[in-house]
Design goal:
Layout: H1 5-8, H2 13-27, E1 33-39, H3 48-69, H4 75-94, H5 98-103, H6 107-124, E2 135-141, E3 146-151, H7 153-156, H8 163-176, H9 180-198, E4 214-216
Parallel strand pairs: 1-2, 1-4
Antiparallel strand pairs: 2-3
Helix pairs in contact: 2-9, 3-4, 8-9
Length: 217
């Protein structure tokens, strides 16, 4: 399968296969339906090029004023156009880098946008529509390096609020080590161990949702 470039440094084809096999294996012992979704980004980053340009122009005029004070007259007219062209090129290149986008996007905004995207995926993936209301989403947003686990209300009512925090930590730890597959596997297996006694697999249980690792923009 073709793996999108944005996720390649975190997971390989073999890792994707392991995650999908883990989902299938866990679901053999619980009626819960587990879905894993990886997206490129949740935050809007259209503001980033404008900020880079603005910072570049501010730097130019700060240094230009100092040079003018030293009587290098005409510096502005002679060098501004070449500088602007270089700045535009630099802006384009820097806007391709995830760490630049993260640095120029407030942490609180990243957190809010990831939560909103996770909720959107929860409904779009039909997790909310399982027969017994036992769907769980393991959501990863690559740009922000954040993960969220969302569970149906029936499951949330049976478990402590901090249950999913531990799973999120496992996933993000895997991302930091450039090994998303291992982080996801651990989170899925641990979740299965918690869910099995509370939501055991039922006779005639049907696999309602695909066990594929969903990767999208």
């Amino acid at each position: 399968m073709s793996i999108p470039k944005f996720v390649k440094k975190y997971i390989e084809e073999e890792g994707i296969k392991r995650v999908e096999e883990t989902i299938a294996r866990v679901e053999k012992h619980t009626s819960a339906e587990l879905v894993a979704v990886v997206v490129k980004n949740s935050s809007t980053t259209g503001h980033v090029p404008a900020i880079i340009l603005l910072l570049g122009l501010v730097l130019y005029f700060i240094f230009d004023v100092r040079l003018l004070e030293e009587k290098y007259l005409g510096f502005l007219q002679i060098t501004f156009i070449p500088y602007l062209l270089l700045l535009l090129i630099a802006t384009f290149l820097l806007n391709q880098l995830d760490w630049v986008k993260r640095m120029l996007t407030p942490a609180w905004d990243q957190g809010e946008q990831v939560e909103k995207r996770a909720l959107l995926e929860f409904y779009q993936s039909n997790i909310k529509k399982t027969k017994d209301g036992t769907g769980i989403l393991f959501f990863i947003s690559v740009l922000e390096r954040k993960a969220i686990v969302l569970a149906d209300q029936i499951i949330c009512d049976q478990l402590p609020a901090d249950t999913w925090t531990a799973m999120v930590n496992l996933i993000t730890s895997g991302m930091k080590q450039k090994d998303l597959a291992s982080g996801l596997e651990k989170a899925l297996i641990n979740s299965g161990n918690i869910l099995k006694p509370l939501f055991p697999v039922q006779l005639g249980d049907i696999d309602e949702l695909p066990n594929k690792l969903i990767i999208k923009e």
